[in-house]
């Protein structure tokens, strides 16, 4: 989730996304504020066999808290000095860290994903302070709906049973992606109670990828 290419694509589409530092080498680790809180994703620079992935995840989970149990390594919370140590290990393993100032999932109203096929869009979300992977990996969907992009201005009826904050967020996201999401693409999304990301908005998009590559992407 969240490759460098995906972040660049989201910005190209003028969609709000996290502001990542892409650490290329050990010198870049100095960019990490030792007193700040971070979320850290990573991008392997080469293919790893399954047993190596398992060994790396076991090593990291024994040394660091708040590590998600999925490949590639992703720590959803880490203090600055610990983050420096974590990123040093990743670089030594030929895995590029992507470092972002903490966006706390406890502030999320909902999270999920959307797919656009031709002129129709399907959005699936989990409601509450959750992360995208609750939908994309765990398959836990609290609300799902579809609409044609030509009817995006009249979808309130489909959302009227939802809590106000969820309805508000889905309306914003539905209208925005109807305008900006390319055909046959999947986008991962959340809506927050507070403005976040590089555009300081409540809606934020974590990843975008071609639907034909969806299974490969979700292996991450």
Write the element-wise H/E pattern from the N-terminal end onward: HEEHEHEEEHEHHEEH
Number of strands: 9
Apparent shape: elongated
Q: How many separate helices? A: 7
Helix content: 25-40%
Beta-strand percent range: 25-35%
Mean of residue pLDDT values: 92
Termini gap: 6 Å
C-alpha Rg (nearest Å): 18 Å
Low-confidence stretches: 215-220
Major sheet description: 5 strands, antiparallel
> How is the largest sheet built, in terms of strand order?
7-6-5-8-9
Structural category: alpha+beta
Observed structural traits:
single chain; disordered C terminus; four-stranded antiparallel beta sheet; alpha+beta; 7 helices; 220 residues; 9 strands; elongated
Structure overview:
The protein has 220 residues and is of the alpha+beta class. It is built from 7 helices and 9 strands. The chain has helices at 4-12, 50-63, 80-92, 133-136, 156-159, 164-180, 214-218; strands spanning 20-22, 37-44, 75-79, 95-101, 108-117, 120-127, 143-148, 185-196, 201-210. A 5-stranded antiparallel β-sheet has the order 7-6-5-8-9. A 4-stranded antiparallel β-sheet has the order 1-4-2-3, covered by helices on one side. A hairpin with a 4-residue loop joins strand 8 and strand 9 (201-210). The model is unreliable at 215-220 (pLDDT under 50).
């Amino acid at each position: 989730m969240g490759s460098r290419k995906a972040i660049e694509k989201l910005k190209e589409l003028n969609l709000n996304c996290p502001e990542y530092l892409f650490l290329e080498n050990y010198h870049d680790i100095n960019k990490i504020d030792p007193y700040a809180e971070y979320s850290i994703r990573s991008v392997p620079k080469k293919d790893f066999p399954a047993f190596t992935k398992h060994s790396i995840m076991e090593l990291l989970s024994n040394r660091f808290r708040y590590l998600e149990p999925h490949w590639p390594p992703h720590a959803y919370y880490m203090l600055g000095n610990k983050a420096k140590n974590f990123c040093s290990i990743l670089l030594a393993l030929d895995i590029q860290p992507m470092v972002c100032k903490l966006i706390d999932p406890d502030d999320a109203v909902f999270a999920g994903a959307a797919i656009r096929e031709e002129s129709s869009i399907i959005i699936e979300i989990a409601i509450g302070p959750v992360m995208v992977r609750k939908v994309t990996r765990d398959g836990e969907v609290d609300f799902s709906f579809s609409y044609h992009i030509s009817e995006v201005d009249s979808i309130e009826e489909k959302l009227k049973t939802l809590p106000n904050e969820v309805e508000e967020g889905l309306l914003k996201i539905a209208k925005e992606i109807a305008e900006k999401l390319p055909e046959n693409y999947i986008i991962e999304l959340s809506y927050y109670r507070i403005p976040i990301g590089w555009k300081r908005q409540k809606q934020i998009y974590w990843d975008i990828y071609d639907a034909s590559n969806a299974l490969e992407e979700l292996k991450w």
